[in-house]
């Protein structure tokens, strides 16, 4: 698909798909992502920790940070930056739009 033909957003599911949960796995275009609720805000993140691939679904979200279950590193949910003391790349984050017709992954 040409760059100009990509959709601006992809519907993930109903607006209540997190239904009180903090972490929900989704697959979009073959990519494994994790929906993360931080208060009223919802973001999508890559599901595998960039350090050694730990499943972040097994982690936890506290105070605006997603904590890896394996190495105790954590990621800022605003920009994906890793906690001090770690020297690997930031976690990839994606914007989520919540609308009356569902949760949408924003591609722009």
From TrEMBL:
Keywords, alphabetical: 2Fe-2S, Iron, Iron-sulfur, Metal-binding
CDD domains: Rieske
Keyword Iron tagged: yes
Statement: the UniProt record of this protein carries the keyword Metal-binding: yes
PROSITE patterns on file: RIESKE
Start and end residues of each Rieske domain: 9-105
Xref: SUPFAM superfamilies: ISP domain
Recorded superkingdom: Bacteria
Pfam short name (any one): Rieske
Protein name, entry field: Rieske (2Fe-2S) protein
């Amino acid at each position: 698909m040409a760059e100009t033909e990509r959709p601006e957003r992809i519907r993930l599911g109903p607006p209540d798909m997190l239904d009180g949960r903090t972490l929900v796995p989704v697959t979009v275009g073959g990519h494994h992502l994790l929906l993360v609720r931080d208060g009223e805000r919802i973001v999508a993140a890559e599901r595998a920790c960039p350090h050694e691939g730990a499943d972040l679904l097994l982690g936890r979200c506290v105070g605006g940070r997603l904590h890896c279950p394996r190495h105790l590193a954590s990621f800022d949910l605003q920009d994906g930056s890793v906690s001090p003391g770690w020297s690997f790349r930031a976690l990839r984050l994606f914007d989520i739009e919540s609308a009356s017709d569902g949760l949408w992954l924003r591609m722009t």
